[in-house]
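Researcher: Please generate the 3D structure of the following complex. Treat every line as part of one assembly.
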Amino acid sequence: MTSSSIPLPLTKQPVAATVSVAAGRAKKRLTSPWASLFAVVLAILWTLPTFGLALSSLRPERAIKTSGWWTFFSNPQVTLDNYRAALSSDGGGLSSYFVNSFVITIPAVIIPVCLASLAAYAFAWIDFKGRNLLFVAVFALQIIPIQVTLIPLLSLYVKAGLAGSFWTIWLSHSTFALPLAIFLLHNFMKEIPRELIEAARMDGAGHVQIFFRVLMPLMTPALAAFGIFQFLWVWNDLLVALTFAGGTPEVAPLTVGIANLSGTRGTAWHLLSAGAFISIVIPLTVFLALQRFFVRGLLAGGLKG
Amino acid sequence: MTARTKGRGAVAAAGVLALALGASACGTAKKSTTSTGKSGCEAYSQYGNLKGKTVSIYTGIVTPEDKPHTDSYKPFESCTGATIKYEGDKSFEAQVLVRAKAGNPPDLAIVPQPGLVKQLVATGAAKAAPAAVQANVDKFWNKDWKGYGTVNGTFYAAPLGASVKSLVWYSPKEFKDKGYKVPTTLDELKTLSDTIAAGGKKPWCAGVASGDATGWPITDWMEDMMLRLYGPAEYDKWVNHQIAFNSPEPTAALDKVGEFLKNSKYVNGGLGNVQSIASTTFQDAGLPILDGTCSFHRQASFYAANWPKGTKVAEDGDVFAFYLPGVDTTSKPVLGGGEFILAFSDRPEVKAFQTYLSTDTWANNKVASSPAGGWVSANKGLDVNKLTSPIDKLAAQILQDPKAVFRFDGSDQMPAAVGSDAFWKQATNWITGQSTKDTVNKIEAAWPK
Amino acid sequence: MSNTAKFLEMGYAILIFVAIVGVILFIANRFSGRKGDRAVASAFLAPTLIVLSVGLVYPGLRTVYESFFDAAGKAFIGLDNYSTIFTDSDEITVLRNTVVWVLITPFFATGIGLLYAILVDKARLESFAKALIFLPMAISFVGASIIWKFIYEYRPEQSGIKQIGLLNQVVVWLGGSPQQWLLNKPWNNVFLIVIMIWIQAGFAMTVLSAAIKAIPEDIVEAARLDGVKAWGMFRFVTVPSIRPALVVVLTTIGIATLKVFDIVRTVTGGQFGTSVVANEFYSQSFRADNQGLGAALAVLLFLLVIPIVLYNIRQLRASEGR
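Model: Done. Output below.
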C-alpha cells in the first residue's frame, strides 16, 4: 500500500468546525418531572409483558394455566422445574442447539456486514452511472418475502450438494440481510461530511484507502448497531435454518429446539416460557456489550475538533 | 409456521427406555458379521444385512412422542445394522412440501393426512409402495385404510398409527354421583345434555383455537354428524365432492353440530359464551371437566395426553371417554385419523425399513416402546392385550369392532384449499355467528375447480 | 458432527470469505483516480449483486411469473388471481387490514422510540433504560406469542375462575367484565398491531437515540441561548437534525410491517377478520396449495412497497441536492 503517508484529514479545520460534536456531557434537556414520569411509565409498560413471562417461567405448570402471573405476589410458588425440563436431555437437550446457534450466527453476521459496507460505500461515495437506480432496486428487494425464495434456493443448494449443511444457512442469511444492511449503512455513510472524503481524495487516496482509513473508523457504531440487529434476526430465525439445513440436532439452531419443546400437539407454556428465557440471554448480553460502541451516535461522532 | 396438529396418533409422555424386547433380544449387533440369523432376529432376516446403510425419516412428531418411535426402530437397527435418522419438526406439513418440490426430500416421511399424501405424490418425488409393503397392508389392514394411501390407483403409503375421533370425554365420577348412564344414541346424548342444562350447568365445553389451524375441531364435529345422519356412503360422496358442500345433507349435518355447539344452553361450560369456543385452544377446552364446570368434551383419543399430570384417565378415574353414539344402536360409524408412511426413495434399505413399519412386528414393538400408552393402530396384528392405558384399549376395541364402520377424517382428505384452509376458516366464522347457509356456500366456492 | 468440527467449519467459512474480500480489495486498489471509479464500484458491488440476483431477484421474478398461473402452476390464467384478490370480500378485508397496519405501526413505533430516546438521553441509568425498551426485539417469536397470550387471554366471569390475561384482569379490577380482545372486530386488529409496535419501538429507539447523540452540541447550545424551550428544541433542532435517521427507521419498520405475518399467524391464525396480505400469501402458498394466488399476493406486497420506495427516492434526491 502506498497510502501510508496520506495525512488523515480529520484535523482539517473546516470539517472540524462543522462536525465538532459535544465532547462534554450537557445537562438534560428535558428535566421536567412529568417527562421523567412519562419515561418511567413507558419503560414499565414495555417491560411488564416480559416480566410476566419471566415470572410465569418460574411457576408450576398447573398454576400457570389457572391463574395470572400477578397472583404470584399474593401466593408465591417458585419452581425451577420448567428450566430443568427445558434443559434436560429428555426434554430435547438444548446444549447442542446452543452450539449450532453460535456457529450459524457468527458468520451470518460478519459476512453481510462486510459485503454491505463495501456496497454501501460504492453507493454512497463512488460516482457511476445508474447508481441511484441500482441503489433503489437493491433497497426495494427488502420486500421480497423470504418464503418465495425457499424452493428455488433449496433446489440450487441441492444441486450444489450443500443441502443440510451450515453453508446454506450462512449464504441464505447473508443474502437476505443485504438489502436492509446496505440501505441502513448507506444512509449512515451519507451522513459523513463530503469534505472528509474530498480531502482524502485530494491527497491522492484511492477508494480502498478512504474506505479503511476514513469511513471504517467513523462507521464502527453503525456497524455495531447493524451487527446487533442482524445478530438478533439470525439468532431468532426458525424458518431459514429449518428449510435449508433441517431440524436435526446436528445443525438446527436453538429456536428449533425451543419450538419443539411444546410437544407434538402441545401448548406446554411452562416449558416454552423457560425456553424463551434461555434463548434471550445471549442476545441481551450482546446488546449490552455492544451498546457502548454506539452510545456516542451512529457515526463515531467524536471527531476531535 | 404452526404444524397442523390434528389427527396424529398421540403418545403420552414416555421417557422410559422400557424396551427390553429389541435391544436385549437381538443383542448388540456385531459390527463385523452379518447380524441376521442371531437369536431374536429371525423376523428381521428378510431385510438382509444393511450394515452401514442409513435411512432418513422425517415427521411432525416431536418430543416426547418421538422417543417411542425411535425406540421402536431399535430392533430393526440392531438386527440389520442399518441406522435410522429421525427428524421431528413441528412445521413438518409445510416443510415436507418445500423439500419435496425442491428435490431434497427425506427417504421416508410420516404423513398425517391422505390429502397431503396426494399433494406429495403430485410433486413427482414420491415412490409407490414396494410389493412387500402392499402385501403386508393387504394382510393387516382393511380395504378402507389401504384406500387412503392410494393415489390414482397406485398404492403409495402404508398406514402406521390411528386415533379414534368419535369420543366424548366425561367425568366418570360425575356420572356415578348423579346416576347418569353413558348414552347409546344421539338422542339420549341430547336428553342427558338437556337434563344437565336444566340443572343450571352448561354441559358441553369446546375450543377450536389452534394457531393457524384454528377451526379444525368443528370440521371433526361436522364429519361425525355427517357419518351419523347419512352413513358412510353419503359421507364418502361428500368428502370426494360427488355432492356439493352446500347440498342439503352437509348443511343439515352442520346444523346438527349447531344444536350442540351453537346452543347457548349447552356451551361453553367453564369457558364463556358460544363465541368463546373460537378463542379457546383445543388443548384447554376439555379441562373444565376436571373443575366440574363442564360435563362433555368431544375430542379424539389423543386428547388423553393433554390432561395435566396426575389425572387418572380410566373408566373409574377422573376422566374417561365414551363413544359418540350413532342415531341408533345398530350402526356404529367411527371417525378417526392416522398417519401414513410415504417413501421418496427406493433404495433397498429404505424399502426394507418401510416394509418393517408395515408389519405386525413393528406395531407390537411400538406398543411395547410406549409404556405410558397413547398409541394405537388399526393394524389387525396388534395385540390389544398388550395395550396398557384404558383409553388406548377403548380406542383399539372401537377400531377392531366388527360392527364399526371406520371413516378417515374428511377434511384431511379434501383438497388443501378446502381441507386445510376454507373449511377451517369458515367453520370459525360459523361459530362466531355466520349462518350455516353462508358457511357451506363459501366452502363450496373455495373448492378447486 | 462434533462441536469442534462445527466451529472449525465456521472458521473455514470465515477464512474463505475474508480471502474473497481480500481479493476484491486487492483488485479495487489497483484502480485509482476518478477514472477507476467504475471499476472500483463494480468490484465493491459484484459479490452483493451476484448473491442478490440469485437469492432474491430470481425468486422474485419467478414469483411474478407464477402469479399468472393457476393453483397447480400449470395453466396460464392471466390476471385471474389478481381479480380474485380485489373482488373476494374476505380478501378486501385483508387489504384493508394491511393498509391499517402500515399506516399505524411505523408512526407509533417510531414516535414512541423517538420520545423515549429523547427522554432517557443522558439520564442516569440510560443504558439500562434503553435495554428495557430493546428487550422485546431480543425475544424470539415463540416467546413473544406466549407473552401476549398472558396479556390478551380471556376467561369468563364465573366464580372459581381466575383471569390469566393481564388486560382482562385490569378490566375486572376496574369493575368491568372481561372482553374477548382478539375476537371483536375491528379492534382485534389494533391489539395485534400493538404487539408489532412493542417489538419495533426498540429498533426505532436504538437508531434514533444514536442519531440524537450525533447532533452537534453547538447547535443545541446556540438554540438554548436563543431561549428555545423543550418543545421548540424538539421541533426545530432535534427532528431536523435526525431527519435522515427518521426516514430510515420509518422505511425499515414500514417494510417490516408489510411483511409481518407471524404475529397474525400465531395469535389469531388470521381469523376473525385479522388477516393481512403477508399472512394470506403464506396460507395460500403453503397451506391451501394455491401457488398462483400465493404468488399474486406476494406480487401485491411488491406493489404495496412502491410508495415507500418513491418516498425514499425523493429523500435521496433531496440529500444529493444538499
